[in-house]
Write a structure and sequence with these properties.
The complex is a heterodimer. By secondary structure, chain A is mainly β. Chain A is 0% helix and 46% strand. In chain A, strand 4 (31-37) and strand 5 (43-50) form a beta hairpin. The chains are: A mainly beta, B mainly beta.
């Protein structure tokens, strides 16, 4: 697609429920990132996928968080047993992953998660 | 700790004022440096970048110079407009291409 598409744009859930957030990166972009942006805070790195390499999961805050990327394209971020502190905007970004454009990230509009 | 440290905000200034947002980075390897901007209600977008020492990135009247000796990449604009009101993020990418971002600086420009 023309840009990075994320869904849902807004999600309100009850504490303890599981949520799935989806990201469709730009076609041909081999690198995909998930970040979290909490109110009043900066961008927190969560996970990074690059081609067929093992993902860098070093930013996932707990084992309730997981992500997968199927076929090197679409990615799903799953949060199990959501807590109120999980409320944030979850941002997905993709990049070419190599060459001059490797670090030029294109961000999606984000998925705003509210845990009641 | 975070490998990028940027000036805390919020920053409020009048139109046509000079803007500087300081950013320093950890000097591991030879990182590329970036400024991303998030306008109200929009997603983050790349503002400018520099890939090696002494490079100057520029866009929309903004400039930043990669200073290896001071490990800095300060963002400057000589005359801001109300439309420059946004959150600005400094970012660093080491050789493995994974970006780490600063905490962001909120800038508000008043007419």
């Amino acid at each position: 697609g023309a840009g990075v598409s994320q869904s849902p744009s807004n999600k309100v859930t009850e504490k303890g429920k599981d949520v799935e957030l989806r990201c469709d990166p730009i076609s041909g972009h081999t690198a995909l990132y998930w970040y979290r942006q909490s109110l009043g805070q900066g961008l927190e790195f969560l996970i990074y996928f690059q081609g067929n390499s093992a993902p860098d999961k070093s930013g996932l805050p707990s084992d309730r968080f997981s992500a997968e990327r199927t076929g090197g394209s679409v990615s799903t971020l799953t949060i199990q047993r959501t807590q109120q502190e999980d409320s944030a905007v979850y941002l997905c970004a993709s990049s070419l992953g190599a060459g001059a454009g490797a670090n030029v990230l294109t961000f999606g509009a984000g998925s705003r998660l509210t845990v009641l | 700790g975070n490998s990028v440290t940027q000036m805390e905000g919020p920053v409020t200034l009048s139109e046509e004022a000079f803007l500087t947002i300081n950013c320093t980075y950890t000097a591991t390897g030879y990182p590329s440096l970036f400024w991303y901007v998030q306008y109200p209600g929009e997603g983050l977008q790349l503002l400018l970048k520099a890939t090696k020492a002494d490079d100057k990135g520029s866009n929309k009247g903004f400039e930043a110079t990669y200073r290896k000796e001071t490990t800095s990449f300060h963002l400057e604009k000589g005359s801001v407009q109300v439309s420059d009101s946004a959150v600005y993020f400094c970012a660093r990418a080491p050789n493995d291409y994974k970006l780490s971002f600063g905490a962001g600086t909120t800038v508000t420009v008043r007419a």
